[in-house]
Amino acid sequence: MDRNGVTEGELEGRGMNKCVEQVSHLALDIGGSLVKMVYFCGENSGSEHQQGILSSKESCGLSNGNTNCSVLRGKLHFRKFETSKINECLEFMSSKQFHRNGEDCHGASVSEKNIIKATGGGAFKFADLFKEKLGMTLDKVDEMNSLVAGANFLLKAASLEAYTYMDGQKEYVQIDQNDLYPYLLVNIGSGVSMIKVDGDGKFERVSGTSVGGGTFWGLGKLLTKCKSFDELLGLSYSGNNRVIDMLVGDIYGGMDYSKIGLSSTAIASSFGKAVSEDKDLEEYKPEDVARSLLRMISNNIGQIAYLNALRFGLKRIFFGGFFIRGHAYTMDTISVGVNFWSNGEAKAMFLRHEGFLGALGAFMSHRKDGFADLKAHHLVEQVPTKPSRNAGGCLNNSSVLKDVNENISIECTMQLSN
Amino acid sequence: MAPIGGNPIHRSSSRPQLDVSGAAIQGNFEERDPTILLPNQSDDISHLALDIGGSLIKLVYFSRHEDRPVNDRIKKTIKERLGISNGNRRSYPVLGGRLHFVKFETNKINQCLDFISSKQLHCGGMDAHLWHSGVSNENAVIKATGGGAYKYADLFKERLGVSIEKEDEMNCLVAGANFLLKAIRHEAFTHMEGHKAFVQIDQNDLFPYLLVNVGSGVSIIKVDGDGKFERVSGTNVGGGTYWGLGKLLTKCNSFDELLELSQRGDNRTIDMLVGDIYGGMDYSKIGLSASTIASSFGKAISDNKDLEDYRPEDISLSLLRMISYNIGQISYLNALRFGLKRIFFGGFFIRGHAYTMDTISFAVQFWSKGTSQAMFLRHEGFLGALGAFMSYEKHGLDDLMVHQLVERFPMGAPYIGGNVHGPPLGDLNEKASVCCMKSDLLIRNGLPASAMFFVIDLSSLSVTGCLVFLDVSLWLVTWKTTNFSLFRNLDGFGSKHAYGIFFLFSSFSTVFLQQYYFLFFLEQMKTWDLKLMFMVYCTCVGFGGYISWMEKFILKGTEITAPVPMAPPGTTGLGGFEVPSSRGGILRPDASKLNVGVLHLVPTLEVFPLLADPKMYEPNTIDLSNPGELEYWFTVLSGHLPDLVDKAVASEGGTDDAKRRGDAFARAFSAHLARLMEEPAAYGKLGLANLLELREECLREFHFFDAYRSIKQRENEASLAVLPDLLMEIDSMDEETRLLKLVEGVLAANIFDWGSRACVDLYHKGTIIEIYRMSRNKMQRPWQASIMKTFLQKLLKIDIEDIQ
């Protein structure tokens, strides 16, 4: 009742003030490297919308006195911050005044409203900080649960969410909701979790690896002195891994080892060429180092993911997590890895909101004490989404590679219940 | 008539195949066991096979029979002693031989070529020219595998005039692994939490298994049988990645150095652990403890540190864990895929390094929830080379029985008795490579090293030796390591010891000259306040001359080329080492923990045909992996050593030369013992009988062919003098008493077996006759277990029946 009231009240109030956005629900995924945020902005865009709420209210109200629903139309927004700069996140929240909206609502107790759904290890680590700085309590949601809930939501609710990426070709895949399960969800954050998903809330973490995004960034930072993940990714674009990787051809004097299906350009040993060459780190181009590193890690993840998919007979592998961030070469390498080891039988698929699975999942957990369902209508790409990667050859500019998915908000309706 | 002779040779399928063409019976055809002459049989035929990988060259070669002794006199006397020329025996050569294992770095391929050339392996062994003088080198073929077999084919042709015959890499790996697992007892072992356990694989239950070869890259092969296999997977994150990335990150110059660094590392400073993310808590729901690595190198993200701010040790360890763990995981997933229980890991990445093995084992154990086990092979690095070796058609090694291969660990292998060209100290075998870090550590850990010399071979710019002065004793330790990387490690104690004086020997210096300078140093040492200095000498490969291992040893006087620098001798007496106290506690570079010996092929050792289950028969009843047993026998053998040395020296006439060799033997054997005390698994699974054989081998290595020779001679004379009396005495007995006395006699004689302490005491007290008498008294009934009655009845009854 109160939540219902709050939102309506806020919507109306905002409507009168002609305010565009009203942040209502917010969830965080505080990982080892990044803080991911999902928040819902209700919209007050005219009578049509109000009617929507009303009609929904009618249809939803039913006879049950306990269930009091309304439908909100609005957008889900996605944001990320570096974990090491968590203050930026706190400031953002503060500026959006999200943390206070509970107090504004009529009749809602402070204790109930000052709770944020949060997942990821940082939900434990930074709990005190949120309490102290914002007076918010972090309600910890299980990480795996969140990942799976987020992925399930996206795969079911958002059309054009999943896509394959091979040889630079992006191809959206329409997933039949009824034929979604089981699938393998590979979440590549700092580390990698591999989860077999059998249904809503039905899943098992079957594997994982410590060689993930954190390894790429961490090792990359040490090797190239890059200051950010994006910069490192940018470097890898123009790199050539053959400079430093030992290829099959290097061992076989330029020939393929055809008997076992290894071409001369296959990597026999990542960084293997550094062994025989008498060169220091400084003598290698950071671009080449970044490229080798990226290939090594992507390929490895692709392989372990495929082996796990094989083990459980799963045809579909979805890759998510912030390591990928829509980076073409990363996706290419993972896809090639999966394709190679499965002889083309398994396909790597990617999610547009890959980095926000956990945060979305945490958001979904509002369901228990907030809304009944969240329906996505379509994706709205707010900002020019395809930054031209060739522009001026300015590949080191991290802004060029800024995540695409952060700019895609999802227009959706939220069915609220009490 | 001639072909008849071939049959006895072919009778046993387990015997190496011989070229029997031209076989002829020598001498009188009426003899029961006529001597057979095989003119096309050289007793030194050598086979050589190579595995030329991206980082290392592995070489396996086989020498038939004994390596040619230094001079014919010795060879002749051995034959006399062993009774080989005895007319009652077959006089065709003993068809035994040895398999030697050597490795070189690929970027120093010239060392490998020099080695082959010096041993004339490419010509089919030392003596080959005697038999094949008509065959020119151009027809010579060496089997080789690995990528380098393609890359360096021309170089081999040019330098050695031999053609490289390329063998498929996977074929070789599998053939090598199959051979080792079938032919060598206790080749495989598990390694969990620092504990090794040798495993005897039932030959009949060997297949299928998963073979993971971790070289520069990793190949994962499913093996279903001999020659039946499939490369099912692999990964590009392998040994080359560890070394390559490690080199870039730590500036280490060698793989071993990098490994050694990891020993002292703490990966928590750089890996992001589950606890780091969860604020010190476990993520127990999915079974991840706080110390689990969530993200390798993940901590480097948030720390505002540069590469230089991290300790190279930590980086090395983090890298090692990442790669080992990854290999273990991918291997397990592949084993699971094909339902394989056994996973064998081999390849040069592992090289007996405890932490690597532990990490891989842990990964397999973790992901399989204990249903799968990682196993390792003692000859892990030589799988490909062995396989290439197996591909020769004529060696016939493939159907060897388990008992026919005996592994020995000579100090100077594979150079025993042979002439070696090249740098006098640079040619010691790979086992020596382990010592550098030991001595390094020894000193770093504060052991009292009075001085240390480093011997640097300028021709290859590698450190080839190290002389450590510990109080009054001098140790010569040799090894091979690339460049001068080791010196960096010395910085840690450099402040305590001044060093830095370089002496340059002229390139034409002889060994004697070096010896002179060496003494000169010793003199100077007394006056200079130098605790540590480097001795640099140049050796000219061309003029280095022929120096046999033995000569070198003798010239070096009291120095000894031991594979392990010991803790300082606990006593000044021979062999009186105290048990090294450093076990545990100090992190050691255990890259050295497993020795690969020389495999002796002894085709004459047939399994006892009457055994109910020959495979399960283990004559070695005392297992030295039991710490109590090992310590006991260590004490016994150490205590016995001075006496043995006396006997050995006496057996060679007590000359100065013999004394020096005796001293050397004592030190060498003590080194073996001390090494065993430190790492009981150093020589694989070891029983007491193996240890005693090791002692015998060690004696032989220092050219003591029978330590008890003079005593035996004396005793034989004494015995022969009393024999008629004894026989008369026995003849005068009734049949039953006679049998009993004979049995007692046999038992009494056996008391000498393996030289127990009590027996040695007896021995000191009198002549053999007295001992025999005393022993007989001890042998009198009642015995603890006896079937004498049954025995007598059976024997006498048969006797009676025969008469009837």
Automatic annotation (TrEMBL), chain A:
Keywords: ATP-binding, Coenzyme A biosynthesis, Cytoplasm, Kinase, Nucleotide-binding, Transferase. Coiled coil: none annotated. Pathway: Cofactor biosynthesis; coenzyme A biosynthesis; CoA from (R)-pantothenate: step 1/5. InterPro entries: ATPase_NBD, Type_II_PanK. GO terms for cellular component: cytosol; nucleus. It catalyses: (R)-pantothenate + ATP = (R)-4'-phosphopantothenate + ADP + H(+). It comes from the Eukaryota. PANTHER family: PANTOTHENATE KINASE (PTHR12280), PANTOTHENATE KINASE 1 (PTHR12280:SF34). This is pantothenate kinase. It is found in: Cytoplasm. It holds the Pfam family Fumble. Its EC number is 2.7.1.33. GO terms for biological process: coenzyme A biosynthetic process. Belongs to the type II pantothenate kinase family. CDD domains: ASKHA_NBD_PanK-II_Pank4. NCBIfam families: panK_eukar. GO terms for molecular function: ATP binding; pantothenate kinase activity. Its main location: cytoplasm.
UniProtKB/TrEMBL annotation, chain B:
Residues 659-795 form the Damage-control phosphatase ARMT1-like metal-binding domain. GO terms for biological process: coenzyme A biosynthetic process. Pathway: Cofactor biosynthesis; coenzyme A biosynthesis; CoA from (R)-pantothenate: step 1/5. One of its GO terms (molecular function) is hydrolase activity. Its cofactor is Mn(2+); Ni(2+). GO terms for cellular component: cytosol; nucleus. Its EC number is 2.7.1.33. The chain crosses the membrane at residues 451-477, 498-518, 530-549. Keywords: ATP-binding, Coenzyme A biosynthesis, Hydrolase, Kinase, Manganese, Membrane, Metal-binding, Nickel, Nucleotide-binding, Transferase, Transmembrane, Transmembrane helix. It comes from the Eukaryota. It is an enzyme of class 2 (transferase). It catalyses: (R)-pantothenate + ATP = (R)-4'-phosphopantothenate + ADP + H(+); (R)-4'-phosphopantetheine sulfonate + H2O = (R)-pantetheine sulfonate + phosphate; (R)-4'-phosphopantetheine + H2O = (R)-pantetheine + phosphate; (R)-4'-phosphopantothenate + H2O = (R)-pantothenate + phosphate. In the C-terminal section; belongs to the damage-control phosphatase family. Phosphopantetheine phosphatase II subfamily. In the N-terminal section; belongs to the type II pantothenate kinase family. NCBIfam families: panK_eukar. Catalyzes the phosphorylation of pantothenate the first step in CoA biosynthesis. May play a role in the physiological regulation of the intracellular CoA concentration. Functionally redudant with PANK1. The phosphatase activity shows preference for normal or oxidatively damaged intermediates of 4'-phosphopantetheine, which provides strong indirect evidence that the phosphatase activity pre-empts damage in the CoA pathway. Hydrolyzing excess 4'-phosphopantetheine could constitute a directed overflow mechanism to prevent its oxidation to the S-sulfonate, sulfonate, or other forms. PANTHER family: 4'-PHOSPHOPANTETHEINE PHOSPHATASE, PANTOTHENATE KINASE. This is Pantothenate kinase 2. It comes from Coffea canephora (Robusta coffee). The lineage of its organism: Eukaryota, Viridiplantae, Streptophyta, Embryophyta, Tracheophyta.
